[in-house]
Amino acid sequence: MPDLRKLNTFALTLLITGAIDSIRNLPASALFGSALIFFFIFAAIMFLIPSALVSAELAANVDEGGIYQWGRLAFGERIGFLAVWLQWINNIVWFPTILSFIAGTAAYLVDPSLAQNKVYLVSVILSSFWFLTLLNLKGIRVSARFTSLCAMMGLIIPITLIIGLLVAWIMLGKPLQIQLTAASILPHLSTSQNWIAMTAIMLGFSGMELATVHIKDVNQPQTTFPKALAYSTTIILITMMLGSLAIAFVLPHNQINLVSGTIQTFAYFLTAYHLNWLTPIMTVMLVTGSLGGILSWVISPIKGLAQAASFGFLPPFFEKENQHGVPHNLLITQAVLVSIACLAFLFFPGVNASYWLLTALSTQLYMIMYVLMFLSALRLRAKAAHHHQRGFVIPGKKTGLWLVCLTGLIGCAITLLVGFIPPDNMAIGNKFYYEILFCGGMAVMTLPILFFYRYQSKKSAHISPQPSQLILNPETNAGM
């Protein structure tokens, strides 16, 4: 009988969708006009669908979820730690960007020009993140309920509304900023700037594997995770593409602001329809939805790090959990680091440039983690080739798995290559200065791994946790 205290398919779908599918990502995608259709479809084929399929198989067949366990079982403890470190550290530089979206949207309640005020942005970022940190200290059941409520109020309703307003806009013959023609949808792929669109979209599609660390809090995870991931993938692709088009159709290209572009579009629509009184209500809903979407990103990588801590990679101080099973010392440490990272908004001449630098840096780190995830899936399937797995497996036996993983790896490689190219349509200042900050940021984020490797090598002799393993069921043939 299902445990009512655990997450079912509906709750897990909302948790995954709320963490990934967010209108905060729409302005960055809308910058690329009608070509965003091509890049959304390309990114879905090359990354979103492969990452969802691989996450579903690994979640269904490994007794503990999360990238750390998958990497450890496939290639050893150090690769497992590298993977979970990349998953966690990319969030340290990503959190300021999403929190700046909340700040830019909330500014419409007082003064829209505040969205360009760096002191205001930093203040809201810090207060919002510390609130989410304290909420996560209450445990997964409390945070999951909050996320589900926020997803309904701040994601499903607003994104349905913005798509509906766009349909009405088109039917009424209102002016459109872009035109959907074969020539405009297919970008000039020889131009490097066109591929930069991949950076924002790929990051917007990241996170399918996050919820798997909560595998012990899910009813019948071997079937629940694959279903939830399938539903989430469909919802995310459709809503993000249509929502981005809504902004691109209505706002002139040079007026799209990465921080406040979504509420800009709502305000533009509602003013045209003489519904200005709805703007404050939509502002509150967007802020609420974004807060809920971040919640699982705050705790999920931390739980992965806590798994690594049990293998001696981190000092015992970080292993400690509160009465809700939350590694509270890790959470507080993360909040301190995010507080420091948000100061990046003070180093660039424009808010858009700061936003883009942090987005590109976060994407690079995350894509390296996904490379490890796809390789881990190939290795774990090979290790279990003489067994029958009881959960979901990617169709097509070995050929199907290799096709999915190679597709995902190619998508990651393309994103990694274009991530070093600064965009021409933003005030980034000196390009050499941008590259120094970008490469320096990557070095600062990854070099601490060497320290933790050294620390773990001294402690490993005293650590003997129970190993995770592939779930094997000799009675079920999954078609390996």
Summarize the topology:
Blueprint: H1 9-20, H2 26-30, H3 36-61, H4 67-75, H5 77-106, H6 118-136, H7 140-171, H8 182-185, H9 192-195, H10 197-204, H11 221-250, H12 261-272, H13 279-309, H14 328-341, H15 351-383, H16 397-418, H17 431-446, H18 448-459
Helix pairs in contact: 1-7, 1-11, 1-13, 3-10, 3-11, 3-15, 3-16, 4-5, 4-15, 5-6, 5-13, 5-14, 5-15, 6-13, 6-14, 7-11, 7-13, 10-15, 12-13, 15-16, 15-17
Features:
480 residues; mainly alpha; Amino acid/polyamine transporter I; 18 helices; globular; disordered C terminus
Structural description of this entry:
The chain has helices at 9-20, 26-30, 36-61, 67-75, 77-106, 118-136, 140-171, 182-185, 192-195, 197-204, 221-250, 261-272, 279-309, 328-341, 351-383, 397-418, 431-446, 448-459. With 480 residues, the protein is mainly alpha-helical. The two termini are 30 Å apart.
The CATH homologous superfamily is named: Amino acid/polyamine transporter I
Could you name the CATH class? Mainly Alpha
CATH architecture: Up-down Bundle
**How many strands, what sense, and barrel or not for the largest sheet?**
none
As for the CATH topology, it is Amino acid/polyamine transporter I
Determine the N-to-C terminus distance.
30 Å
Instruction: Write the H/E string, N to C.
Output: HHHHHHHHHHHHHHHHHH
Cα-atom radius of gyration: 22 Å
Low-confidence runs of at least 5 consecutive residues? 472-480
Count of alpha and pi helical runs: 18
Number of domain modules: 1
Mean pLDDT: 78
Number of strands: 0
Name the helicity range: 55-70%
Dominant shape: globular
Secondary structure class reads mainly alpha
> Approximately how much beta-strand content do the residues carry?
under 5%
